[in-house]
Amino acid sequence: MYASREDMGYDFGDDSKVGSKPVKPNPNIDGGWAWMIVLSSFLVHILIMGSQMALGILNMEWLEEFNQSRGLTAWVSSLSMGITLIVGPVIGLCISVCGCRRTAIIGGILNALGWILSAYASNVRYLFLTFGVTAGVGSGMVYLPAVVMVGQYFQKRRALAQGLSTTGTGFGAFLMTALLKYLCIEFGWRNAMFIQGAVSLNLCVCGALMRPLSPKDMVSEKHVLRSNSEDNQAKALSHSAETIKSNRVLREEPEKKEAATNEEVLDSVQHTEVGGKSRRGRNMYGLHILKTVSQLMVRVRKGFVIWYSSYFGAASLFTNRIFVAFIIWALFAYSSFVIPFIHLPEIVKQYNLSSQNNLFPLTSIIAIVHIFGKVILGMISDLPCISTWNVFLMANFTLVTCILTLPLMQTYVSLAVVCALIGFSSGYFSLMPVVTEDLVGTKDLANAYGIIICANGISALFGPPLAGWIYDITHKYDFSFYISGLLYMVGIIFLLIQPCIQKKLPREKSMEGAQV
């Protein structure tokens, strides 16, 4: 899904005429302004994903302020995290119609508004609407364009650029945890959220940096890819987008004729209204509005065609059993990573370790080591003698083991060691696009990866409230981690079983063919 929109751009004009002429490489592709796009995406990850990973600080304040159950209070954080990822398909329509820059700027304003309105919350359900939904939708409107723009500006160095930008999540979790804790101590949680809302307005600046590529630049980008024999992987990633684009060009012809007809009618009406100047002025103003609305409707219609083809043209993916197992895994996996960020601060408080945790929070340990985990696991998986799939599975086994053993640790040192392992093993997120490509192929990579991201969003939505509800019943967080760990293990088992079944099927078919 992401790659398909990365290669589409913003303008819906016909590229065929431009593509027939020799074009020079755009200096902003893999260089120049492209690095400003990386900086923008890096800051977006700090302000959005980093602040979401630090919500455990505010979760404790909400529990004390509103005196509600942990399961109900956890919905505030989980709604914000889950909606950010789940709304991806809808935000894709906004990008197709308005472009990444406008979508991100509107999202930055909406996110800041959600933080500021939450400062006046009178109950938890008020936070559901202001912080969970409003700030969550705003986060999604900025997060997706940040990912899309990096892919659009980079071809040869796309993996490096995406890796650098996503490290902002780890840095952000570390910085935002310290910032929110300081603000809550000095000013109280309400003023802290108000200040954080003002800080979040910087997302509008990040959105303003997302300068769109012109149609000529987009064609130049594809022309360079075709002429460069060493860029096979980048060409394969944009293959699905080319298919969608070819379908779009076929559908654009009647739409262009319709737009041209509308303009001819409007122009003819303009020429007939040559009467008085005042009358002509009123008619011209009305015709201008009518013409603007007509052009907007055509643009929305074209954007919807692109969006629909991109997201709903991938039904065949669900016939792949391994990919379905991968979706089931994603539904359980991400919550196991999110739950510690939400509930660890309160666990530390129950174990009377607040003084040590204030010096160096456990969530900050996860965040910092998570950065190194992404880089190191990526380097290991790139070795020719190492299977990316095996590295991915080993990291998952390490993470689920840490989740299951974390309740047994009741000292700061032991918890710090487990949290460091959680941060390192969760670095497998950088391997997810590679594993997805191995499962479905390069042609369907974009749509398949988008589906996995939505599944992660669902996991983040229901994981923390489930852990809170279990605590409300048992009055212990132990069972929350045990149950989430066991569900995570079920997802891993699905990943292990399906490849074995897939390998047996061709053998059985070949044996049947031999018998015939």
From TrEMBL:
The record's GO CC annotations read: membrane
Q: Which UniProt keywords apply?
A: Membrane, Transmembrane, Transmembrane helix
Pfam families (UniProt xref) = MFS_1
Cellular localization per UniProt: Membrane
The membrane-spanning stretches of this chain are 33-55, 75-97, 104-121, 127-148, 160-180, 192-210, 322-344, 359-377, 389-409, 415-436, 448-467, 479-501
- Domain of life where this protein originates: Eukaryota
Q: Which residues form the Major facilitator superfamily (MFS) profile domain?
A: 37-503
Tell me where the signal peptide lies: none
Membrane topology type: Multi-pass membrane protein
Q: What is its main location?
A: membrane
Q: For this protein, what is any one GO molecular function term?
A: monocarboxylic acid transmembrane transporter activity
What is the official name of this protein in its record? Answer: MOT14 protein
**Species for this entry:** Bucorvus abyssinicus (Northern ground-hornbill)
Q: What is the lineage of its organism?
A: Eukaryota, Metazoa, Chordata, Craniata, Vertebrata
